[in-house]
Every structure is written in structure tokens, then in C-alpha cells.
From TrEMBL:
Keyword Repeat: no
Ranges of compositional bias, category Acidic residues: 33-45
GO biological process annotation, one example: heart development
Pfam families: JmjC, KDM6_C-hel, KDM6_GATAL
Protein name in UniProt: [histone H3]-trimethyl-L-lysine(27) demethylase
UniProt record similarity statement: Belongs to the UTX family.
Species this protein is from: Sphenodon punctatus (Tuatara)
Cofactor(s) for this UniProt protein: L-ascorbate; Fe(2+)
Localization, UniProt: Nucleus
Amino acid sequence: MFSLCEGWSPGDGGVSLREGLPDPVLSLGQEDKESDEEEPEEPDSTTEAPPSNPDQKPHQIIKFGTNIDLSDAKRWKPQLQELLKLPAFMRVTSTGNMLSHVGHTILGMNTVQLYMKVPGSRTPGHQENNNFCSVNINIGPGDCEWFAVHEHYWKTISAFCERHNVDYLTGSWWPILEDLYQSNIPVYRFIQRPGDLVWINAGTVHWVQATGWCNNIAWNVGPLTAYQYQLALERYEWNEIKNVKSIVPMIHVSWNVARTVRISDSDLYKMIKFCLLQSIKHCQVQRESLVRSGKKIAYQGRVKDEPAYYCNECDVEVFNILFVTSENGGKNTYLVHCEGCARKRSAALHSVVVLEQYKTEELIHIYDSFTLAVSPSSR
């Protein structure tokens, strides 16, 4: 069914790794799987692996710049100002963008990143982090070829991956179009030329290859719609089941949206309201259990630009009640854990400090104050 991202380029060469690193990475290259197993050290880009078949062209390593950080507002001011010409729903920052309410930087999602591609560079099949939308602009001079499948078919493609022992969420895979067609999966296929903007809708499965030398800039957008919010939460829960970190802390974002945005979409409002209710219940149950067991809870309110927290062991988002340990007894090195992982270390939570970032009354006030706004059209 799938090519595991091996052996394609104008010279039948290697391809790039999945572009999913949180920090900027330059010249990320990968030779094909067979060559990689034979040569553990990365050879020079001009080095060719010996062909296993005399009639087969040797594979060649491709290197290209991926996830290059353009978040510095001063250094890239002229370029970032150009992006303000885009419609509000496409901009890196806007009131109607959930990612503008995270409260901290998520590189490549609520900031711009650059991809410097050579012919044959591939971005393997994937959905965006937490199923968010994305914007991609080809600066040129060459073209990119895109393949995209509606979100409705992601489970079918995931099943294909499982049958081929490839992890759908974290693995590197490249669908064979004929197999998709035989499974009645429609595929959008198009060329992105210099100056073209591609909008990837929420949850869209897509994969891309450069057919020429080109530079692309990209970022994510989270429209405040019921469709986007539902898909983001579904992937958030699926990631937790699969032990994959959700790059977007959806509980944290939901509370920030409720605090700062007026929602007039009734479906979206109901979803957020329900999420907040479940969050309050979880915090209340946790708190009561800790108090009953005699565990002291220290209040430590959040400060401006403080990031969301994730468990150091399982990468699940930890909201409000933090279970903190000091690493090797150090004074300034602290690790946050979820309750489950903290109790695995010590069932009675010995040497674990429990911090509370919100008073229960504060959360209840935000919840009660979050009401459905009346849209101008319904007046």
C-alpha cells in the first residue's frame, strides 16, 4: 500500500524526514531505509550507496532546510508585515484564531517557519498538529506538488499504516495513489507555483514533494468554529490514547478562549462550555482526594506568558493542579508530572509538591461568565 518515504526524486534518490521537530533544524537529510541501515553515519550529500541491483539507479541523499524559525519580529519585520495583507482568517495572529490564545509561542504553529527545498524533497503524509488548519505560501522559484485527502478518510489511511507496521501519527509514509483509488478514497492533486497560497483545512491528510528548487513559508491557524474545535479535541484525546504529545494544550486554550473571546456560534459555545465543565470536575475531584489524604496543596498563581505544562513522563497536558518534583534534589530544576505518573513514583506522593494555579472560585467565575454572545444577524 505505502512507500515508506523511500526512493523518490528526479534521480530516484532519498527523501526528507517528517517535518515535526519543535526547534529549527537546518539541512535535515535522510537516505532511504536500506542505505541508512548499511551506513550508520550520514555520508556526504554527493555520496552514493552501492546499488543492490546492477540495473537499479543508486540512491542519493537529499538535504534541505526544514523548520527554519522566522518568529523574531524584529529581524523579520518587513516580511512579517507583508503577511498582514492576508485576510484575517489566514493571518498568523488574529482574535478569531485559537492559536493566538495559547498565551505562549508554539514554533511553526503560531509563528512562521521556512522550508528551503531542493528537487525531490518530500514532506510525508500527515495531518497537522491537533488537526489545525495550515497556510503554506510558495515563495519560489520552483514548484511543489501537493496531494490531499479529506479528513473523513484518515481512519482508513491509518488502518493502511497499521497493516504495514507504520505508525500513522509519528511514522514516515507516502501513499501509493493507485491503492487509494482502489479504496475509493478521492485525492486532490495540484501544483503550487511561486506566489500560490495553499490553505489546508482542519484535519486534511496531505503530503508534498518539491518538483523544483523552492522556498515555502508556513504556519497553523485555528478558526473559532465548531468543526475545528471538535477535530482538535478528538485528536487531543486520540494522542493521549496513543501516548503522543499534543502540541496544542487544548484545555489551557479552552479556558483562555472562554476568558477573552465572545462566542456567537452556539455549537462551538456548547463544546467549549462542556470542556470547561469536565475540566472543573476533574480539578475538583483531584483536589478533594488530595485534601482527604492530608496532602498539602500550595497555591501558585500563573504569571504572564507562562506556558502550559505537560507531564515529564507521559507528555499529557497537566492543567491547574501540578505534581512537582526536584531533579536530583536540585534547587532550581523542577519536573511537572500528572497525578498518575506522580503516584507511580510514590503512591503516597512523598517528595512531591502539589501546586494549584487557579482557585476553584476563579474557574467557576470564568465558567459562569462565559455566555453565548448574540450575533448581530440574529438581533
